[in-house]
Write a structure and sequence with these properties.
By secondary structure, this protein is an alpha/beta fold. The protein has a domain at 6-41 and 76-217 and 379-435. It has helices at residues 6-14, 20-26, 37-57, 60-72, 88-104, 144-147, 162-167, 175-183, 192-207, 220-231, 237-243, 245-260, 307-315, 323-332, 344-358, 364-372, 391-396, 403-411, 416-419, 424-428, 430-435, and strands spanning 75-77, 108-113, 129-131, 136-138, 214-219, 274-278, 281-288, 291-294, 302-304, 319-321, 337-340, 378-380. Helix 11 crosses helix 12. The protein is globular.
């Protein structure tokens, strides 16, 4: 870990025998403002994106307070994929971000939810399912063939499967969260991503009384609009990296070299620059001549690799950024720390190193950006807390509205070493075991 992401290793070492809440506060520590003009512009674009989202969900007087908190502690909790927070892994990832925000005293914090996954990721698991203990509830009442063939960001319109939820009414440990779901039983959402984000926000509000550190959920669609904002300017770095053939080729070589390097197993290059969205499902794209197209699908998504066409396709929901572009505009350029899992803390340094390779030190703006990029903002934030106790069982053990505060007390008394079982998950990871030269079964 020291060789690939020493900043992550350092944070873990400093907090090893300290409470989990101390580690949560440590990864929310202040991040320096970008110095370069490119970085400052990227930070402003990200801030503007968050401001638009905040206007939809908080009172006007609370918008600037949330943004001021982000200005001081620009941190994003990632790894909370689009799934109800009743899922233990999703909840635990969210919980660490909430703990950090509360310890620091932030009024709100920002949570990125990946929405490119399908509604059913495997048999009766994924965003379209709710684990109710003795049975799996088809959350939106969608047929299995739709669940496995529609992505969260494309599936819709949706409404909760009220009939299935009514059938478990009165079962042990369901009263609080089930009543909240049923209260939304007559609502319709344009897509599953919006439904899950709004229900999760409601769940947190019911678990967090009095309210503190409000989560602000955003996803790939907001990242697409953010990339489009960069593409408004034909002279922006993002525009040049994507649409200038020479610079794009240089970037692609840098990313390919990282893939073939010693840390290549961490690289998630599953599509070229963007995903396409067609018939409610995310599609992998390849570059064919001067267009982005679906491989072996001549009638599928096809977008010219030209700035205005790409910008408009992003704004109209035809394209979504791949992980490199997503982290470029969300984290690397604006100097924002993103809390992620064991794979993310590996590939984010590789993304940043690839970008450094393609910058031109003869250009004063890019030379200043190189200085910004001499430091990485990277932190482990997913599966730090590893408790597989069903969330519904945790709720049954605490007074109404006190779940998060009860857990804050718990994790203020439990060390990072204890909670992670001496980094058991890292030691069991095939990628990390190979990197550390340990045998892999």
């Amino acid at each position: 870990m020291d060789g690939l992401c020493p900043e992550v290793s350092r944070a873990i070492s400093e907090c090893w025998n300290a409470p989990v809440t101390h580690y949560a506060a440590r990864i929310f520590c202040a991040v320096p403002q970008p110095v370069s003009a490119i970085g400052k512009t990227a930070r402003q674009y990200l801030r503007d994106t968050f401001k638009q989202q905040l206007k939809l969900i908080v009172q006007p007087q609370d918008v600037e307070a949330a943004l001021a908190g982000f200005d001081a502690r620009p941190v994003i909790q990632a790894g909370v994929h689009s799934q109800l927070l009743l899922d233990p892994i999703t909840f635990n990832a969210f919980l660490l971000g909430w703990l950090g925000a509360v310890e620091i005293g932030l009024p709100a914090f920002f949570v990125f939810s990946g929405t490119t996954v399908t509604m059913e990721t495997m048999g009766k698991e994924g965003p379209g399912w709710l684990d109710a203990g003795d049975r799996q509830i088809n959350l939106f009442g969608m047929g299995r063939h739709k669940l496995c063939r529609q992505s969260v960001c494309g599936a819709g319109p949706v409404e909760l499967n009220r009939e299935a939820l009514e059938e478990i009414r009165g079962a042990a440990g369901t009263s609080g969260w089930l009543e909240l779901l049923l209260a939304n039983g007559d609502r319709k959402w344009g897509n599953a991503a919006d439904a899950l984000a709004e229900i999760n926000a409601d769940l947190v509000a019911h678990w967090n009384e009095p309210a503190s550190a409000r989560p602000v959920f955003f996803d790939d669609r907001h990242a697409a609009l953010l990339v489009a904002r960069h593409l408004d300017d034909e002279g922006s770095l993002v525009s040049r990296l994507i649409t200038d053939p020479a610079r794009r080729a240089h970037l692609e070589r840098a990313l390919e070299d990282a893939t073939s390097g010693p840390y290549g197993r961490f690289m998630p290059l599953s599509t070229q620059h963007f995903f396409g969205l067609r018939e409610k499902r995310v599609r992998k794209l390849v570059l064919a001549g001067d267009r982005l197209v679906e491989a072996e699908r001549p009638q599928g998504v096809s977008v010219p690799l030209e700035r205005v066409a790409l910008r408009d396709a992003l704004r109209h929901g035809i394209l979504l950024p791949n992980l490199f572009l997503l982290f470029l505009v969300m984290s690397i350029l604006p100097r924002v720390r993103v809390l992620g899992g064991f794979r993310q803390i590996g590939y984010l340094p590789l993304f940043q190193a690839a970008l450094r390779r393609v910058l031109d030190p003869a250009d004063s703006d890019e030379r200043a950006l190189l200085e910004d990029l001499s430091v990485r903002e990277n932190a482990w934030g997913m599966r730090v807390i590893e408790d597989d106790t069903p969330v519904r069982e945790r709720l049954a053990e605490v007074p109404a509205g006190r779940l998060l505060e009860t857990l804050r007390v718990k994790y203020s008394q439990r060390t990072l070493a204890e909670e992670t079982d001496s980094l058991r998950l890292l030691r069991e990871s095939r990628r990390w075991r190979r990197l550390m030269g340990l045998p892999v079964d």
